[in-house]
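User: I'm preparing a small set of examples for a lab meeting where we compare how different chains pack in three dimensions. I only have the primary sequence for this one, and I'd like the structure in C-alpha cell form so I can line it up with the others. Please keep the answer compact; I'll paste it straight into my notes.
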Amino acid sequence: MKQLCKKIIFLTCFLLVLAPSFLLAYNPTINTTVLPFEVVTIDNNIEAEAEYLSELIGYPQMYEFVLTKEATLTLELAQLSKDTPVPFSLITVKENTNNGGVTEIGRLQAKDISWTLVNDRILGMQLLKSQVFSADLTAGVYRVEVSTPDNFGAYLLTVGDVPFNPGYFSTLSDIRTIQHFFDLSLISLFRSSYVSYPLGIIILTILFFFTWRNREKLQGRFSIGK
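Assistant: Understood. Below is the C-alpha cell output for the 226-residue chain.
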C-alpha cells in the first residue's frame, strides 16, 4: 500500500509540473510610460515571443528595438472580447541614418484588421486577435507605434513567435498578470488550463486512491445489494 501511495504521489507531481510545460506560455511586460510619446525600449531579440500590456490614454504609444543582424518581426494585437472592438492600428518604421527621418516598413490599419474571437484556454479568457503582421528586417533601429483614432483603449501586443517557457509557477503568475490587467477577478484563474488541468488530475487521483483503499467495503456493499 505504501508503495502504491508513493507511485500515486509521484505521478501526480509529475503531471502537475511537467504536463503544463507542453503548452505555450506567456512572457508579459506592462508598459508603464507616463509621458506623451515616451518610447518604450523592448527586447532586441524580436523573434522570441513576448507580450506587452498597455492602455492608450490620449496619445499613441511607441516601442523601439535595435537589430545588429537580420531578423523576422512578427506582431499581433489583441484586446478583451467585446461587441464593438477598439479600432487599433499599428505601424512599423525604420530610423534612417544621419537623422534622415524614418522609412515605413508596413502597417496594420484599423479598417483592414479582421478581429478573430479566440477562446484562450491557457489565459482562461476570450480575446479578439488581429491578423499577424510579419516583415524581414535588416540591422538598424526600428519603432512600432500603436494607436486608435482617439488613442484610448487597452491592448496586448505580441512580438515574436518563438515560444518562451519559464516554468509552471512563473507561467501561472504571468497568466494572472494578464488577467488582472484586463480587470478579471481571481476566480478567472480557475478557467485557465494551467489550473483546471492539474486540479482535474488531483481530483481523479484522490477518487482513485479512495476507491482502491475502500475496495473491500465497496465490494461488500455490492454483494449485499445482489
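A couple of notes for your slides: The helical segments are 2-18, 168-181, 193-213, 215-225. The chain has two domains: 1-25+167-176+188-226, 27-164.

User: Perfect, thanks.
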